[in-house]
Amino acid sequence: MGADGEEVVGVIREIGMKIASIVGARPNFIKLAPVSKELRKQFEEIVIHTGQHYDYEMYKVFSDDLGLPEPDYHLGVGSGSQGEQIGELLKRIEQGIEESED
């Protein structure tokens, strides 16, 4: 039988796990707002902006209107085919994790 929600929350707190929210386009920003608000009540959340459609002014509008936190990291993936974007995204996330472990 699996752990219930309270057990999972307890384990996350005990080991000091951080939760990463990864966003890159307008629909993600809208979905992030309520999720981030709740996450930050109990956990340390890190917001990672992929940079797929990055326009600071556009993000700022959503940030101000929805109360989004400023991204902790900007990956700057940019445009390209879906495969190129996903590959670059995974590479940059992995590099960031390795750097944060040092």
**How many distinct helices?**
4
CATH fold-level label: Rossmann fold
Q: What is the chain-wise order of helices and strands?
A: HEHEHEH
Tell me the β content.
Answer: 5-15%
- Overall radius of gyration: 15 Å
Can you put this structure into words, describing what you see?
This protein has 102 residues and is α/β, with parallel strands linked by helices. It has one domain: Glycogen Phosphorylase B (Rossmann fold, 3-Layer(aba) Sandwich), CATH 3.40.50. 58% of the residues lie in helices and 14% in strands. It contains four helices and three strands. It has a three-stranded parallel beta sheet with strand order 1-2-3, with helices on one face. It is globular and about 40 Å long. The mean pLDDT is 81.
Topology:
Layout: H1 5-15, E1 18-23, H2 26-42, E2 44-49, H3 56-66, E3 73-74, H4 82-101
Parallel strand pairs: 1-2, 2-3
Helix pairs in contact: 2-3
Spell out the key features of this protein:
alpha/beta, Rossmann fold, three-stranded parallel beta sheet, 58% helix, globular
In short:
By secondary structure, this protein is an alpha/beta fold. 58% of the residues lie in helices and 14% in strands. The chain has 4 helices and 3 strands; from the N terminus they run αβαβαβα.
